[in-house]
Specification:
The protein is of the alpha+beta class and about 220 residues long. The protein has helices at about 5-15, 45, 75-80, 95-105, 135-150, 205-210, and strands spanning about 20, 55-60, 65-70, 90, 110-115, 120, 125-135, 155-165, 170-175, 195, 200.
Length: about 220
């Protein structure tokens, strides 16, 4: 993957082959996520995004290009997978040479220009956003605790919580990496009354994460 890509572009391309990579949870996030570790909706099953990098192509501070992998330059490979911009920065499609020089002389080891990642099979999925009133925040906290205790052992499951107390609303995104309606992993949440429920089957993973939240909540 070229470093100028965003995860939505990557997913859309790979889904034509029924494959997916462990990447960002929001389609507009860039490939630089890999260098910060990278939480993903697939992390419960496959680990951090950085764990799934096979190799990086890197332009070093001396202007030479090299490959960092578990075999080649293994120490640099280790540092890039979570070292964030302490060890490298990603190059976008067009970056002036002056910006390259400034970054490289500010302590950055190099510029990542390309990443090769493992891919995994993917088909239809289930999930979406459910909104809850703050009235049920205690019940939600209990549900989260129960999910962490047992539900998350189902590695096809993932959740994200947005607790917006100042707006009297709590949003929970449910993701299940298989076409199963109301998976048992999320059962602690099903008896909590909701303001709205957008969960459904999706033909692709991109369709699940793509639509913006229509909540009026600033992000």
């Amino acid at each position: 993957m070229g470093a100028g890509n965003r995860w939505g572009d990557v997913y859309n391309y790979l889904e034509t082959f029924n494959r997916l990579v462990v990447g960002g949870r929001v389609p507009d996030v860039g490939i630089g996520l890999l260098m910060g570790g990278g939480l993903s909706h697939l992390s419960n099953q496959y680990g951090f995004a950085a764990d799934n990098v096979v190799s990086f192509e890197v332009v070093l501070a001396n202007a030479s290009a090299t490959t960092a992998s578990a075999i080649l330059n293994a120490d640099l490979f280790f540092a890039l997978r979570g070292g964030s911009n302490n060890y490298g920065t990603r190059a976008r499609r067009f970056v002036p040479l002056s910006a390259f020089h400034r970054r490289l002389t500010n302590g950055t080891v190099g510029i990542v220009t390309h990443a090769t990642m493992r891919t995994y099979p993917i088909g239809k999925v289930w999930g979406g956003v459910v909104a809850y009133n703050n009235t049920y925040v205690d019940a939600l906290m209990r549900a989260f605790a129960m999910y962490q205790k047992s539900g998350q052992l189902d590695t096809k499951s993932a959740i994200i919580a947005d607790m917006v107390f100042t707006q009297n609303i709590n949003l929970v995104t449910f993701v299940y990496l298989a076409p199963v309606r109301h998976p048992v992993a999320f059962s602690p949440f099903y008896n909590i009354p909701s303001l709205y429920d957008q969960t459904k089957f999706h033909d692709t993973f991109s369709d699940l994460i793509g639509p913006p939240l229509s909540t009026g909540i600033p992000r």
